[in-house]
Design brief:
Blueprint (H helix, E strand, L loop, with lengths): L2 H11 L4 E5 L1 H5 L9 H11 L3 H4 L2 H6 L1 H11 L9 H11 L3 E6 L5 H5 L4 E3 L2 E8 L5 E2 L1 H5 L4 E2 L2 E2 L8 E5 L8 H13 L2 E5 L19 E5 L12 E3 L3 H9 L2
Parallel strand pairs: 1-2, 1-9, 2-3, 9-10, 10-11
Antiparallel strand pairs: 4-5, 4-8, 6-7
Keywords: Cytoplasm, Metal-binding, NAD, Transferase, Zinc
Cofactor: Zn(2+)
Subcellular location: Cytoplasm
């Protein structure tokens, strides 16, 4: 165990209210690509001739649900993805009474699959879907089953309406209850661990400003704008770092 991970282990042991704030880097270790990466942006432009941001916008969903779902199902839904060591480490910290919340920008539901209970999903969840007309709820299996779809577009088995994923698209507002829950947790925390995010996507990245605790820890393979004010910066794999520090 290197010195940085030893220091993180010590911080965790001396903390009572940890909050974890994570981004796409947490999920890439579960083989879910980051669509904002250079490769993701390049592939979207090459295959579709449009940016991922446009194809994941409310406007595009309404104007071209077929095109939206073609991109969405091939780039944001990974049915076989499994939690990695980072997810399990955070679930263990919650079970041990150390961690009070996970705040995530991801929509894959892997924190819950690993056993985390208090999870604020800033951008919603691909695991939840609902009919835009009658509001009937559907799981991921339903929308991925071609038998329930017209082309790529899932249709409600009750009223025939278009089923929309419960994810926050570009041009849509974040869920107020998720934001307030995240703000409340971060403002109470004595330690904030930020991992797998470059902290450039707003308004989510602005949540870090609500932290008034003792230890700010950043775990990310690239530098962030907050590195200079952090108590500990670790440039390494988040699964490896948290897995070693927590012992999973």
């Amino acid at each position: 165990m290197n010195e940085d991970i030893k220091k993180l282990k010590e911080i965790i042991e001396n903390s009572k209210k940890i909050v974890f704030f994570g981004g796409a880097g947490v999920s890439t270790e579960s083989n879910i690509p980051d669509f904002r990466s250079e490769e993701g942006l390049y592939n979207a432009q090459q295959q579709y001739g449009m940016s991922p941001e446009y194809m994941l916008s409310h406007s595009y969903f309404i104007d071209n649900p077929e095109g939206f779902y073609d991109y969405y199902k091939h780039n944001l839904v990974y049915e076989d993805a499994k939690p990695n060591k980072a997810h399990y480490a955070l679930a263990k910290l919650e079970q041990d009474g150390k961690l009070i919340a996970v705040v995530t920008q991801n929509v894959d539901g892997l924190h819950q699959k690993a056993g985390s209970k208090t999870v604020y999903e800033l951008h919603g969840s691909a695991a939840r879907n609902y009919c835009m007309d009658c509001r009937k709820a559907f799981d991921m299996d339903y929308i991925m089953d071609p038998a329930n779809c017209d082309g790529y577009v899932p249709k409600c088995d009750k009223c025939g309406g278009i089923v929309k994923p419960d994810v926050v698209l570009y041009e849509e507002a974040l869920d107020e209850s998720q934001i307030m829950g995240a703000v409340n947790a971060i403002s109470q925390a004595d330690t904030l661990i930020v991992g797998g995010t470059s902290l450039v996507v707003y308004p989510a990245a602005g949540l870090i400003r609500y932290f008034n605790g003792k230890n700010l820890v950043l775990i990310n393979k690239s530098s962030t704008q907050y590195d200079s004010i952090a108590n500990l910066v670790i440039s390494d794999s988040i699964g490896k770092v948290l897995g070693e520090a927590v012992g999973v």
